[in-house]
Specification:
Helix content is 33%, strand content 17%.
């Protein structure tokens, strides 16, 4: 044999000895990407390339598993993965989703890499790493796993994919996204082209179909088929959405009130019968598609007569951060009743407290695990955690990490995972943060566990002293490590905010200016250091910084003097940050030097009120409508129609008593016919006993010629403060100002 032939064969032999990763010719982009991820982390762990000549590892991904001669394939379920090895060969296979999740499972479990947070990754160095011998398969219990942060986003699409979140990822083929037109509250999209006075739009808002109308069902079905066609046109099959939403609009007055619809035993029955008829038509042509609808507000109570079809997902929304889905709780029993009649269930869980302020609170770790185990045991198919405003929340990064682990395996060791996370994320500050975490969870046990209950009852001098003690020590321990210090400073934000908002209850023990400056600096630091959405940073950061400055001005003016008429009484003093759980700066808030804090709540100014729709010719007119309304019971607690003699003519702030009532989760103050000026009472649930009746007082200024004779000012309604007083006597309120 000639020398060049010998050299060629030797080179071929060396090449064959090098490591390889094989994919099928038609592998998806997601599979191609995780092929590179596997090679990347193999190099990080071992210090050498998987493709180098001294690496004999051979990997078969996805459908390429059939090329491994020793491997015996088995049928796998949707999203299930199988990891098997023999000598120096490895197979990771499943459908596209199963293969991708299987790769990340292998990276975590066998290469021992940890993706703790978007900025915290732990990779061990192990030059002597060898492929373990294994053959295992697993499928997460929930096929759709999403934690919604709202904007701005903290976690990148790549990090979410590495954590096996199946929605907000970069590749359509592994996203369990919803089909058009939207993921929830889609009735409005389906009927938007119907005339407002049409025969099928019989809801209170003019955007609701008649459940019992055959024509409404036909039109919905036709539109759904059009959406399906639109979503699939020109796209590969693996990109096609599998879940389509047909669900009620938000709010309590969004169901048909016609005589036929009222014959249904419950609104849930009417909704299920309506959705079933559409799902039946879809199943004939698209048996793989699932139709999703709500069990929410008026449809929350389980249906009595009608059962959802097998291709219908009932998406239940009655899990809250203060009232999780646990066995033997009212909300847990509701889930159990639905599970008896619904083959497929989804959960919309509220991990964010809708109370209008930033305060220390965490969904306890044991509660997280018990809820997700309970959901798994009841056959829940999809789990969505609404968990917005991460930059003002306690232990948010830890919560996301544990949630992502629990939605994949509800039986994982939460304590072990917590310890690993804290060590990586806080470094030498971990012991202090662990004590604070456990203290916070223990103090929360004092809170009544109910829907929107008094979740901040535990905030007292002892809490703030203890929390600040642990945080002080934590900061000192990582003072020379900026990356870790930023994580500790994040935990300061809700503690400082809660104390600054309660200056009337807890006099500041530290220098006030220093406390305010620390809160402001930390809040801005988190936005600048942790937001991953560069578009948001460019377009919205200035607005958010303005919001911080508005808070600073409020904190500087607090505590406010208690009006003389409330001295010596048990009160809850509410200010503009407490008025709306969705934020107020670009919706209701304006400068007003006459207001107690220098800021006032006024008619919503980010959305123009359609006068013609409301059959009005003027925005301001008499009588002035105001009072109290409960959207759960759909009843006015108090309603007043003021003419000019009822209104002080000095255009100053006055205290008005609007009524006496117990506080419910959906009680609100309204002060205009459009309800464009309204104040939610949710914050009140967090500050005082909800069962003791309260007098509700509002500090209101009324200006302009519509209301004030010969006024030279613009028509306007302004609120700067609300005070709730524990009821002292049974006297009836007349709704007029206290003279």
């Amino acid at each position: 044999m000639k020398p060049f032939a010998l050299l060629f064969l030797a080179g071929l032999s060396l090449k064959l000895m090098a490591g390889q990763i094989f994919l099928a010719p038609d592998a998806s982009n997601a599979e191609k990407f995780v092929k590179n991820e596997l090679a990347l982390y193999y190099r990080k762990v071992t210090g050498k390339s998987l493709y180098s000549r001294d690496t004999s590892l051979t990997v078969y991904l996805g459908k390429a598993a059939l090329d491994a001669k020793w491997f015996k394939p088995e049928p796998l379920d949707f999203e299930e993965w199988r990891i098997a090895s023999s000598a120096n060969e490895l197979v990771i296979t499943g459908d596209i989703r199963g293969t991708v999740w299987g790769v990340y499972e292998f990276i975590e479990k066998y290469l021992h890499v940890n993706f703790f947070a978007a900025d915290t990754e732990v990779v061990p160095l192990d030059p002597d790493w060898h492929l373990p011998q294994t053959d295992e398969r697993y499928r997460p219990p929930f096929i759709r796993r999403e934690m919604y942060e709202s904007v701005p986003y903290m976690n990148t699409q790549l990090f979410r994919m590495r954590r096996k979140e199946s929605v907000r990822t970069a590749f359509p083929e592994i996203r369990m996204h919803h089909g058009s037109p939207f993921a929830c509250h889609t009735f409005a999209y389906y009927v938007k082209d119907w005339p407002d006075d049409g025969p099928f739009a019989k809801g209170a808002d003019g955007k609701t179909p008649c459940y019992s109308s055959p024509e409404a069902r036909r039109l919905f079905t036709e539109k759904l088929f059009a959406y399906i066609k639109q979503d699939r046109e020109g796209k590969p099959q693996e990109h096609w959405p599998l879940i389509y939403d047909i669900s009620q609009n938000d709010g309590y007055s969004t169901c048909c009130q016609c005589a036929e619809c009222k014959k249904f035993p419950t609104v849930a029955d009417a909704n299920i019968d309506f959705v079933n008829s559409i799902a039946e038509a879809v199943e004939k042509d698209y048996p793989e598609i699932l139709i999703q609808t709500f069990a929410y507000q008026q449809t929350q109570t389980p249906a009595i007569k009608f059962k959802p079809r097998s291709n219908v997902i009932i998406r239940s929304c009655n899990s809250e951060i203060t009232a999780a889905l646990l066995p033997n709780t009212p909300q847990g029993k509701t889930l159990e009743e639905w599970s008896k009649i619904a083959p497929k269930i989804g959960i919309w869980a509220y991990w964010k407290p809708y109370t209008g302020e930033e305060t220390p609170y965490i969904k306890p770790r044991k509660v997280m695990q018990r809820e997700l185990q309970f959901c798994r045991d009841k056959g829940v198919l999809t789990y969505y955690a609404e968990n917005g405003n991460p930059f003002a929340r306690s232990f948010y990064a830890l919560q996301y990490y544990l949630w992502s682990k629990l939605t994949v395996n509800p039986d994982c060791n939460v304590e072990k995972l917590t310890n690993s996370f804290l060590k990586a994320y806080y470094g030498s500050a971990a012991p202090y943060l662990k004590r604070y975490l456990e203290y916070l969870e223990n103090r929360e046990k004092e809170v009544p566990y109910q829907i929107r209950g008094n979740m901040y009852h535990f905030l007292d001098d002892g809490f703030f002293d203890t929390a600040n003690q642990w945080l002080d020590q934590a900061e000192k321990s990582v003072a020379e490590q900026p990356h870790l210090l930023r994580h500790v400073r994040w935990e300061r934000i809700p503690v400082d905010h809660a104390l600054l908002m309660r200056q009337d209850q807890f006099p500041l023990k530290d220098d006030k200016e220093k406390s305010i400056a620390r809160w402001r600096a930390n809040a801005e630091m988190v936005l600048n250091q942790f937001v991953t959405d560069h578009k948001w940073l460019k377009q919205q950061l200035k607005q958010r910084l303005l919001e911080l400055d508005n808070k600073v001005k409020l904190f500087e003016k607090m505590p406010f003097a208690v009006p003389e008429q409330f001295l010596g009484k048990a009160i809850l003093d509410m200010h503009w940050p407490d008025f709306d759980p969705w934020g107020v700066h670009d919706r209701y808030l304006i400068d007003d030097p006459e207001a107690t804090s220098g800021k006032a709540f006024t008619l919503r100014h980010d959305k123009k009120i359609d006068l013609a729709k409301h059959k009005r010719t003027k925005l301001h007119e008499l009588p002035l409508e105001l009072g109290l309304y409960d959207s759960t019971s759909k009843q006015y607690v108090a309603k007043y129609l003021w003419e000019r003699p009822d209104i002080p003519q000095d255009e100053k702030y006055h205290w008005y008593k609007l009524g006496e009532t117990s506080i419910t989760k959906d009680l609100r103050i309204f002060m205009h016919w459009s309800w464009g000026l309204r104040i939610f009472m949710r914050k009140a649930l967090t500050g005082i006993d909800r069962d003791i009746p309260k007098e509700i007082w509002v500090s209101l200024k009324i200006t302009g010629p519509t209301y004030i004779e010969n006024s030279q000012k613009r028509d306007g309604l302004f609120v700067d403060r609300v005070i709730l007083v524990e009821k002292q006597n049974p006297a009836e309120s007349n709704g007029k100002q206290e003279r």
